[in-house]
Amino acid sequence: MTETMGRIGVVAATASGRTAAETLRAAWPDEVRVLTADKAGDALREAWRTCDAIVSFLAVGATVRVLAPLLGHKTTDPAVVCVDESMAFAVAVLGGHHGGNLLAHRLTGVLGCTPVVTTASDRSNVTPLDSYGADLGFTVHDPTVLAHVGAAVLSGEPVRIEGADDWPLPPLPPNVTSGAEDAAHHILVTDHAAMDCMCHDGWFGGALVYRPKSLVVGVGSARGVSAEEVGTLVDQALAAAALDPASVRCLATVDLKADEEGILQAAAARGWEVVTYPAEALAAVAVPNPSEVVRAEVGTPSVAEAAALHGARTHGRDAELVVEKRKSANATAAVARLAPRGRLAIVGLGPGARDLLTPRAIAALQRASVVVGLEQYLDQVRDLIRPGTRVIASGLGQEEERARTAVAEASAGRAVALVGSGDAGVYAMASPALEFADADIDVDGVPGITAAVAASNLLGAPLGHDHAYISLSDLHTPWEVIERRVTAAAEGDFTVCFYNPRSRARDWQLPKALAILAAHRPPETPVGYVRNATRPDQTVTLTTLAELDPARIDMFTVVVVGSSRSRAVAGRFVTPRGYRWA
């Protein structure tokens, strides 16, 4: 989920509302448009016409009375959030699953108000059906079925689902399963068109049907081909295999046809993007119907079949040619189905406090159908994980197994979250996971607040100038290598943050590292250490290099040793930036 949501229209009628509106404009200058008019209702109507979302500093009732005559459909109407005069509450009024709930939560960070979200799926922490697969391009075949099936999902009634296993979709609760043979409610993910008569395995109409973006249409043509000829041929190719045009991801062709108006117009008429590939790339694709005549003309023995397969592989793990080349007088067309790429979100949970867990991390946890992590870290966020999510927990020392498991699940086409403490890229799970991941999965790194950053803020500002992070664990790194790094940091006069400083089995490395630094630092150099930063039992200690007692340090502690310029100021650890201020 993105941090921005397009243009946000802000409307206010009172002095406090106008002040809050300007606060929002200052915080989100690229998004906020403050609308003014003699009457607030006119400003609201203008915001409705011109903006993607609305923040109304008016009563909910007043806002609803103005906007009610303008309501269309929740997928196209702007999201609307009302904020009360005292800035206590941000109420998601319209478009909750289409930006309103997110906007209500975002307002908390700027105005300090409490978000009020009333959509049932959000209150139950269940994936909403009206946005199910939306970020994958899914469309709903018949939106009128949504409410009926959604109520069954939330009520715990048996709901049968088919076709979802092929896609990296978010979880649905355990009552939604492919094994619910006698269920009265059905969900189907398919690119097949003939849904009004009979669905798979004897299902009949009435299912909630999602159209995935699973098809790539390949097209070749002679110069000057008409849009009508291309469009007719493409429509026939899809109909021949009972494929729905709503599932077409794009139209693909050779780059020599990038300016072919007949192809461009036919695609535009159907709302499809046109993508092109070099002839040499298409020539490398094995096809069932190559042509030496085509090779002589454009440098590849196939355009339609090769472009369809290559385009599908570009967007997926693999591709299947579901419609072989069909010809008209001046064009060829073929259709390929892609095997969707799995998703791996590598999520940093922060140092432990819930309010330091980022909204993006929460969204990644709720988007994943499989969550992998160390058991004690998963315990911190189990209440955020949605019903139906498969949780794979393991213990200390099993980092490689966790990384391989997460990558394997994503490689099978699933939506996976691999969690770790702090930031997943700092002494955590991102590095081992990415060593095992290949190009067949999509990877999203979700930043987290590191232990070093959390400890630094508790101590003061010890990382205010150049600094180094060094792990003192020699379980996987030889001590000789660690010692060289500590020495280099000492000679470079870096502030040093030590991770994994001392355990019961490793009790001599920290004193050795401190001795190396002491050879390059005065004895009064400040040293801070924080145990269990931001957690209920945290302890924060500021001392000096000469007075530090290593026996007080353990594996739950971060140790920060200052540079020669660091000092204690009013009981706080400060490393000056070293700038000359004008």
UniProtKB/TrEMBL annotation:
Keywords: Cobalamin biosynthesis, Methyltransferase, S-adenosyl-L-methionine, Transferase. Residues 215-336 form the CobE/GbiG C-terminal domain. Residues 43-122 form the Cobalamin synthesis G N-terminal domain. Transmembrane segments: none annotated. InterPro entries: 4pyrrol_Mease, 4pyrrol_Methylase_sf, 4pyrrole_Mease_sub1, 4pyrrole_Mease_sub2, CbiG_N, Cbl_synth_CobJ/CibH_dom, CobE/GbiG_C, CobE/GbiG_C_sf. It comes from the Bacteria. It holds the Pfam family CbiG_N. Pathway: Cofactor biosynthesis; adenosylcobalamin biosynthesis. Residues 343-549 form the Tetrapyrrole methylase domain. The keyword Phosphoprotein does not apply. This is Precorrin-3B C(17)-methyltransferase. It comes from Actinoallomurus liliacearum.
